[in-house]
Amino acid sequence: MDKDKLLRAYSQLKTIREFEERLNVEIATGEIAGFTHLYAGQEAVAVGVCESLDDKDYIVSTHRGHGHCMAKGGDVIDMMKEIYGSTEGLCKGKGGSMHIADFDRGILGANGIVGGGPPLAVGAAIAIKQRGDKNVAVSFSGDGSSNQGTVFEAMNLAVVLEVPSIFVFENNGYGEHTGADYAVGGDLLKRTQGFGMPVFTADGADFFSVYDATQKAIAHANAGQGPSAIYAECPRYFGHYVGDPQKYRSKDELSDIRENQDCLKILRAKVIEDASLTEAELATADEQVMKLIDDAVTAARAAPRPVAADVLEDVYINY
Amino acid sequence: MPIKTYRDALNEALHQEFERDERVFILGEDVSGGQAGSAGVVDAAGGIFGVTKGLVNKFGVDRVIDTPISESAIIGAANGAALAGMRPIAELMFADFIGVSMDQIFNQLAKFRYMFGGKTTCPVVVRLPTGAGMNMAAQHSQTMYQMMTSVPGLKVVMPANAYDAKGLLISAIRDDDPVLFFEHKGLYNDKCEVPDEPYTVPIGEADMPREGDDVTVVAFSRSVKFAIKAIDKLQEEGISCDLVDPRSSSPLDEETILESVEATSRLVVVDESPPRCGLTADIAAMVASKGFSSLKAPIEQVSAPHTPVPFARELERAYVPGPAHIEAAIRKTLA
């Protein structure tokens, strides 16, 4: 991977991490309304997948979607404005954290319904196939989503229609508060294989591993062979939502995953060891990211607020 | 002008819109005619009601897509394709199957334009054979449109004759908002004059198939046909009625209803749905709020009973509000 691309991937990982760490702090101030689900820990999956995509590829994200949207090119400042509920946010303050979308970037929306997204990605893949384009439509699902019937329906339909969908399963160990070991019957990987499509397994804390798996999935789609899946186990650093006391998790687990399953540390160690990037280059990237996050929060705080009349915009009304 | 059935009028609208816009495609169960059967060919029968007949021969399997029996995936795929720039039509074999795909209809399709701040539209048409009259019992005979009417973001359309079926379907396909398009199963064989060329009937404008002075009757879908029977019979006795067919329950043409009630001072509302939170209650409430001063008698509501749809011929006949029920309600409001 060339140096610019590598540095960009690192910056993307770092941006998502710092965006989420900062939100965890800012939400405590009470300035941000609602219900926020943080992606920290899983960055290698979003970035590993999206670094292989361009604006004409589609993604459908989840309630834990900030990382996917940033990785796919969603503007960090406009996303922050949306999370603060400003009219300058990506969805004019109508969507918030769980519904960020940017159609110019191929982001067909984060989705508040677990399992809501995969059927949408199959539809986008139908559109790609009908237009004869060489693109893919990616759905992100967690271990929780993998138990929804809609996801099974979507995988089956994609196989039947031989469309270029990629089903990414991020197993972060928990569906809401309940362990995947309890809630996922059998083997998630084998279930997916049961639909008759290849599943490329990746280490969800290792950007390069996810990137390689995604390259294989895209090659499969571009060869006209239809859908495939990517399965990655990854850590979830925070609770289900900001404010979740996480009584179901041990302190040891939380410190262990921060220590041993940190995609930033893992990537840094690799690029320093093989001398593809220097400490100085990484430090410069870090500085730029920290400034971007500061700028985003400052801009979001100052951004214009919606007014009551905006409630009635963006939907047909005649009553 | 040529006479066509409601079914053929819909089929013609589909052919013409497929021809006009290559982004239009349809997906659903058996819409091509049935793939991979032992006959080895698709005979293009076009679904169990034959509405999509012949489409696959002309437009191919990429645009006339037979799906597995997976209603959530059918609606979800239509939604995703629309977000990606297509103009999909999803067909559910029966409107009752909304139950299986509810999330994709009311949490996804209905929400996208608003929830994403107007940055996208989601131009999906969902075609839904609706209603009782074929003795298909409780899970294949419901109207369902009254439930969908309460969801902001959806347009809910129910043509009552072949002319409107064609014109409203073409409008629905060209509409940038999602349209749930309810085709009454009991009307598929009904005929009237239908032009050969494509035309649109605007969504949200009521039709007035009968005009009179004494009572306003508002009816939806197949109830319009029954209301016409009742009104024509009463006309022989010198009782004359306005009949308003709103043609869509959302958006609703309140103005036409209120103007008619202002002139007649009496209102009968008819629909095949159950009574609670249904269309008759909704229209009655609207007129009571906005047109109370015009009324000289209590509003009469003619609906199905608050029961599931029964199977046996005698029971289903008793369930569906027919011309006799409507006639009785008109007489009551005049009494």
Can you characterise this structure?
The complex is a heterodimer of chains A (319) and B (335). Chain A is of the alpha/beta class and 319 residues long. Chain A has a single domain, classed as Thiamin diphosphate (ThDP)-binding fold, Pyr/PP domains (Rossmann fold, 3-Layer(aba) Sandwich), CATH 3.40.50.970. Chain A is built from twelve helices and seven strands. A five-stranded parallel beta sheet of chain A has the order 1-2-3-7-6, with helices on both faces. In chain A, strand 2, helix 6 and strand 3 form a beta-alpha-beta unit. The longest helix of chain A has 25 residues, at 3-27. Chain A is globular, with a radius of gyration of 19 Å. With 335 residues, chain B is α/β, with parallel strands linked by helices. Chain B folds into two domains: 3-193, Thiamin diphosphate (ThDP)-binding fold, Pyr/PP domains (Rossmann fold, 3-Layer(aba) Sandwich); 207-334, Rossmann fold, CATH 3.40.50. Chain B has twelve helices and 14 strands. Chain B has helices spanning 6-20, 55-59, 71-83, 102-109, 112-115, 145-148, 162-174, 222-235, 254-264, 279-290, 313-319, 323-334, and strands at 3-5, 24-28, 64-66, 87-91, 125-130, 155-157, 179-184, 191-193, 207-210, 215-219, 241-245, 248-250, 267-270, 300-302. In chain B, strands 3-2-4-5-7-6-12 form a seven-stranded mixed beta sheet, with helices on both faces. In chain B, strand 10 (215-219), helix 8 (222-235) and strand 11 (241-245) form a beta-alpha-beta unit. In chain B, helix 1 (6-20) runs parallel beside helix 7 (162-174), helix 3 (71-83) runs parallel beside helix 4 and helix 8 crosses helix 12 (323-334). The N and C termini of chain B lie far apart (42 Å). The mean pLDDT of chain B is 97. The interface between A and B is large, with 47 and 45 residues.
